[in-house]
Q: What sequence folds into this?
């Protein structure tokens, strides 16, 4: 819900500030902001430098991140648990690959 969107905005701010601190460039590709300043979806591209490649440092950040806190959307002070998914993928150059069909083996398994 809205609390997850706010948590996603917090994570985006954290990753963006870290990237700027270490000299990486950050570019927003797409986003779906919410009315309260969160994000339903946000996609960014982080470009590292040769001495400090971004993927090498961020690859372990991928997965589900969870927070337990009293959100700004809660009026009675109850703790909510929210989760967001983070996907980290390397940006690789397009290359042509030749696969010899004789080197391909296809195994088919069926349960009974």
A:
């Amino acid at each position: 819900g809205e609390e997850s969107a706010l948590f996603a905005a917090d994570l985006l701010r954290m990753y963006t500030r870290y990237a700027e601190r270490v000299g990486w460039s950050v570019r927003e590709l797409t986003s779906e902001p919410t009315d309260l300043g969160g994000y339903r979806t946000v996609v960014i591209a982080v470009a590292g430098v040769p001495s400090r490649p971004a993927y090498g440092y961020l690859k372990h950040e991928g997965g589900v991140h969870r927070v337990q806190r009293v959100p700004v959307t809660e009026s009675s002070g109850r703790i909510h648990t929210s989760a967001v998914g983070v996907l980290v993928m390397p940006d690789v150059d397009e290359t042509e690959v030749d696969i010899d069909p004789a080197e391909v083996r296809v195994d088919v398994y069926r349960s009974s």
